[in-house]
Amino acid sequence: IIKDSNSSAEDTSTTAHRKPTHSGVFTHPLSPSPLKPKLGPIRTPVDRAYKTCSSWEPLHDEVEKIAEMTSNNGYSKNPTHSTINKETTNKANTTEKPAHEGPEKFKVHFKLPYIGDT
User: Fold this and answer.
1) 34, 50, 63, 118: which has the highest count of C-beta atoms within 10 A?
2) What is the dihedral of CA 75, 69, 16, 93, to 10 degrees?
3) Across-strand partners of 66?
4) Is-above-0.70 flag for pTM?
5) What is the mean pLDDT of residues 12-20?
């Protein structure tokens, strides 16, 4: 969370954080592993950034960093950008689920008798 000490709570913004020890190394695109695990290191950080960034500017910056990391790992722009576009489009078109669906929930307590050692 980034907050200017001279600003109000409305000026507080959040952004994704990457540990300094993050290597940025992904599975090489030409490795014999299936495609889905190769796209995971693109989809997962985009999803994390979408959930944690409070505005489009830090989200855009994070997506640019992800694209740079994939480029450094030998991924071409087409699968990287198509995966990023697909993830961000899916997130933008998904409506938030209501906080509560279905019947009202309440706690039920049962008193069980002690039968002893059996």
Assistant:
1) 63
2) -20
3) none
4) no
5) 80
